[in-house]
């Protein structure tokens, strides 16, 4: 008997584990596919037209594999040697340049072939194209210094060609391939042999070429030398200045750029003034020369000159001031002051007519050939630029004027009137540029009443963008007097009357005007609040947006000047309390020092620290929830969820964390409900649809946790996804037990196993340990993948017994993505009417907070017949306000059939799901794929029948 017991003990408590040998890893060899031979078949063509068509088709097929370019190059070179048509040879040279850009080519070999073709070529157009091809080859190999030297030497040999195309191409090659070391070697060799000119001397010689295209190419080459890091000589300045009067537009355009470059290289060097012995700084002289080009006949030159002026920050103050001083010229003579005329008369000793005191003696007219109206230095440059007939020139002039004014407070004050005059421009882009320019100079400026007459006129503009930009500018500006502040307020109220959709922006502007001018607003408070020394005024209506805007201005001004607080009446304090709760970001925290019943703005009893402590305390109470019985655990979760829901509105700084934790605990509470309901599905007391609705609610919560909340770590995401796995497990078990369709069961099983494999990979990558439920499913994944549904159901039933509530500790500061829709407000009773079957647009103005990926934002429209549309807003309608803050200003397109009466359409901002999971497919809606970022707005819509 003892032997038998011993044998049973050994049989029970001893086991043999056989370790399976790991399979040998196999190396998968991938055979590289053979490169197909590319043949142009140029040997079969009979006419140049056919050859040209073949070359054009091959050009459209580029790029090709680099291994196949060798055969193509040989075929092109062979055909080039016996081709008589210059057009075909030009095209072959162009294709050789394109093939040389492909990686892995033998650049030196290609260059040798092109050089050999260049020696026997007679057509100047083809020679120019071959030189351009050599330039492309040299740029493709930046480290081939010897090849560059050889190509530069070859280009020098062809500079004597009679064709301007060849000379221009050679100059472009020299400018593109000359390097600083090449320049130094040229300088050293020229010192040894004075007959060898340097590169810059060579290029400067061609700036006097008879052909303007060659002159332009020479200046372009000098600019390329500068871009490649070569130090240009100061002697080039006089040649560039002389080229500013060239007859050719291209030469003047490049010359003004070269003058600008040299003014940055040698700003403090002194240059001689023409017809004078005086010397001025080079940067001042260059500034005056570029200002002269603002009057050029070419629009491109004027625009380029205006754009270059803004970066000359080292210009003297007197030159800057002259740009805003437009001298008057009359009868070819400049008008002089009376003092200057009297001084000249006294020095000349000439007689007067005697008919008038200090009458000028008759003088001859000035010779027009000796006077140039263009050569007036910097006088009136910006005035001419701002009055130009082309909007491109006016915009560049505004940019340069703003950039120079930002460097000098005195010049900013002088340019203030010129910028404000551009508010009346006929082009909207110019008006917006002027508004932004004045906003950038707000720290130096103070608006006067005469200037506000022009500025405030923009608030009547039909363009919403112009009105919005102007209000943003007024938020940053300061006004001089209380009358100016009153004019701003009256214009804003008129804007509110004309365009009620600007309400939020107007309130924001009122807020900044009151905050920036507390002392100017104080004398206006009695009139703004309708105060009377003897009689009580009527309490205004709080539903009036104009009155709310006035209160926002007054309250913000009172925060900086507490003298206004005793003026507030009883109803004013009540209105303050209401606005402090409804729009706290616009109303400051005012405290009545009297301490009576009207004291408002008291701090909440829940401070931030106490709120966090309470939240942590409630979470610590849930740490032992695993050891509780199901009923007690469920009651504890319900009370915790109820407390955290109340906690969300007490402190905005922890509301996101509290809401995130509340949603997660709700999923655990719903899982406990699923455990109870799963036992009653078979008996019929709980329907499958009700059971699946609970599963769907869990998936919606987990999807929102992963999509809307930012700052959640990988450990928290792992807990959320494991909760999602538990809900999917319940769904699969109910599907296998109740569904009679094999296809539905197979689809549900495939989705579940795919999600399980995805979760396993995520946990392994993040090095996170799974809970008991998930670990068991990982061990049973082979059985779950089988098509034997009883085996699968048995494994899942065993896993469901391991489900227990899990607490998710939040270690980071969580932020929630939100969307606040300002327009449409949903408060109007006027229906949006349009013809049924056609479309109408409803303007939406929404503020987006904590949005990482703007491309995931959608606009959801829900019609009364329960149809839903997702609209992708254009990228240009999303404006970035700051880090993770955006503004969505777009038009929502609505369209529907004929309705018998007006109905409400819900418009909301949603975000596409970012969670990596396989959603349930038993519903046809998209509720689990999108997450709402805020409350929807209801718009009354009335489609009408088309009129015949």
From TrEMBL:
Domain (INTS4 8 helical bundle): residue spans on this chain: 613-807
Keyword flag Nucleus: yes
Subcellular location: Nucleus
Integrator complex subunit 4/Protein SIEL C-terminal Ig-like domain mapped to chain residues: 821-945
GO CC term, one of those recorded: nucleus
Superkingdom as given in the UniProt entry: Eukaryota
InterPro entries: ARM-like (IPR011989), ARM-type_fold (IPR016024), INTS4_8HBD (IPR056235), INTS4_C (IPR057412)
Main location: nucleus
Keyword match Nucleus: yes
Keywords assigned by UniProt, alphabetized: Nucleus
Database matches in PANTHER family: INTEGRATOR COMPLEX SUBUNIT 4
Protein name (database record): Integrator complex subunit 4
């Amino acid at each position: 008997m003892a032997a038998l017991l011993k044998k049973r003990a050994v049989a029970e408590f001893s086991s043999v584990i056989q370790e399976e040998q790991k399979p040998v890893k196999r190396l998968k060899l991938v055979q590289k596919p053979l490169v197909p031979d590319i043949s142009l078949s140029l040997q079969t063509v009979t006419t140049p037209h056919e050859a040209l068509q073949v070359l054009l088709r091959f050009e459209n097929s580029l790029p090709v594999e680099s291994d196949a370019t060798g055969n193509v190059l040989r075929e092109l070179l062979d055909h080039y040697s016996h081709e008589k048509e210059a057009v075909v040879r030009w095209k072959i040279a162009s294709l050789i340049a394109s093939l040389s850009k492909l990686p892995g080519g033998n650049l030196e070999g290609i260059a040798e072939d092109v050089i050999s073709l260049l020696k026997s070529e007679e057509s100047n157009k083809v020679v120019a194209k071959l030189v351009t091809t050599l330039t492309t080859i040299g740029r493709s190999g930046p480290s081939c210094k010897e090849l560059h030297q050889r190509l530069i030497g070859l280009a020098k040999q062809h500079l004597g060609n009679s064709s301007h195309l060849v000379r221009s191409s050679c100059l472009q090659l020299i400018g593109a391939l000359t390097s600083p070391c090449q320049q130094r070697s040229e300088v050293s060799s020229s010192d040894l042999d004075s007959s060898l000119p340097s590169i810059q001397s060579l290029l400067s010689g061609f700036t006097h070429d008879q052909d303007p295209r060659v002159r332009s190419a020479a200046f372009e080459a000098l600019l390329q030398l500068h871009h490649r890091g070569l130090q240009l000589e100061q002697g080039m300045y006089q040649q560039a200045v002389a080229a500013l009067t060239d007859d050719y537009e291209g030469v003047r355009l490049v010359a003004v750029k070269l003058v600008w470059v040299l003014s940055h290289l040698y700003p403090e060097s002194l240059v001689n003034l023409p017809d004078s012995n005086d010397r001025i700084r080079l940067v001042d002289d260059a500034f005056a020369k570029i200002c002269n080009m603002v009057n050029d006949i070419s629009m491109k030159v004027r625009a380029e000159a205006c754009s270059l002026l803004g970066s000359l920050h080292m210009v003297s103050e007197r030159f800057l001031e002259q740009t805003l001083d437009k001298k008057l010229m009359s009868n070819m003579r400049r008008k002089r002051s009376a003092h200057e005329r009297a001084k000249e008369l006294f020095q000349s000793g000439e007689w007067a007519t005697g008919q008038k005191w200090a009458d000028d003696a008759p003088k001859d007219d000035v010779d027009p050939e000796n006077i140039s109206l263009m050569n007036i230095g910097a006088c009136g440059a910006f005035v001419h630029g701002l009055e130009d007939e082309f909007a491109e020139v006016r915009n560049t002039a505004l940019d340069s004027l703003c950039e120079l004014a930002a460097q000098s407070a005195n010049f900013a004050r002088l340019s203030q009137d010129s910028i404000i005059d551009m508010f009346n421009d006929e082009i909207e882009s110019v008006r917006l540029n002027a508004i932004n320019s004045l906003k950038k100079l707000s720290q130096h400026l103070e608006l006067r009443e005469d200037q506000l007459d022009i500025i405030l006129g923009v608030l009547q503009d039909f363009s919403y963008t112009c009105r919005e930009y102007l209000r943003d500018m007024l938020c940053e500006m300061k006004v001089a007097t209380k009358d100016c502040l009153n004019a701003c307020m009256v214009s804003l109220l008129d804007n509110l009357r004309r365009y009620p959709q600007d309400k939020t922006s107007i309130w924001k502007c009122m807020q900044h005007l009151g905050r920036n001018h507390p002392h100017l607003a104080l004398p206006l408070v009695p009139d703004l609040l309708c105060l009377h020394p003897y009689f009580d005024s009527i309490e205004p209506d709080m539903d009036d947006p104009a009155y709310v805007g006035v209160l926002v201005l007054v309250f913000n001004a009172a925060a900086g000047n507490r003298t206004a607080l005793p003026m507030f009446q009883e109803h004013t304090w009540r209105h303050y309390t209401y606005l402090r709760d409804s729009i706290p970001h616009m109303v400051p925290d005012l405290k009545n020092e009297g301490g009576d019943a009207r004291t408002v703005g008291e701090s909440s009893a829940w401070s931030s620290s106490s709120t966090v402590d309470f939240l942590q305390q409630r979470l610590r109470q849930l740490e032992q929830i695993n050891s509780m019985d199901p009923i007690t655990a469920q009651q504890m979760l319900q009370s915790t969820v109820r407390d955290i829901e109340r906690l969300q509105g007490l402190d905005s700084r922890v509301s996101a964390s509290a809401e995130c934790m509340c949603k997660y605990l709700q999923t655990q509470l719903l899982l406990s409900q699923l455990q109870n309901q799963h036992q009653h599905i078979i008996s019929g007391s709980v329907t499958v649809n009700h059971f699946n609705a609970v599963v769907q609610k869990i998936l919606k919560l987990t999807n929102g946790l992963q999509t809307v909340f930012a700052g959640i770590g990988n450990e928290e995401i792992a807990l959320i996804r494991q909760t999602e796995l538990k809900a999917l497990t319940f769904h699969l078990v109910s599907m296998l037990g109740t569904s009679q369709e094999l296809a539905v069961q197979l689809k549900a099983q495939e989705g579940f196993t795919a999600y399980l494999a995805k979760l396993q990979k995520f946990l392994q990558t993040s090095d996170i340990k799974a809970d008991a439920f998930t670990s068991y499913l990982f061990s049973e994944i082979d059985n779950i993948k089988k098509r034997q549904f009883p085996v699968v159901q048995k494994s899942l039933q065993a896993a469901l017994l391991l489900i227990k509530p899990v607490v998710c500790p939040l270690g980071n500061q969580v932020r929630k993505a939100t969307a606040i829709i300002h327009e449409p407000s949903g408060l109007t009773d006027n229906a949006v009417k349009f013809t049924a079957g056609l479309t109408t647009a409803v303007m939406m103005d929404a503020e987006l907070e904590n949005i990482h990926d703007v491309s995931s934002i959608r606009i959801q429209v829900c019609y009364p017949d329960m149809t839903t549309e997702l609209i992708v807003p254009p990228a240009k309608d999303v404006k970035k306000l700051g880090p993770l803050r955006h503004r969505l200003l777009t038009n929502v397109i609505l369209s529907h059939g004929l309705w018998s009466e007006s109905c409400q359409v819900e418009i909301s901002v949603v975000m596409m799901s970012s969670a990596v999971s396989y959603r349930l497919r038993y519903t046809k809606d998209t509720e689990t794929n999108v997450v709402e970022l805020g409350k929807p707005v209801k718009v009354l819509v009335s489609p009408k029948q088309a009129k015949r």
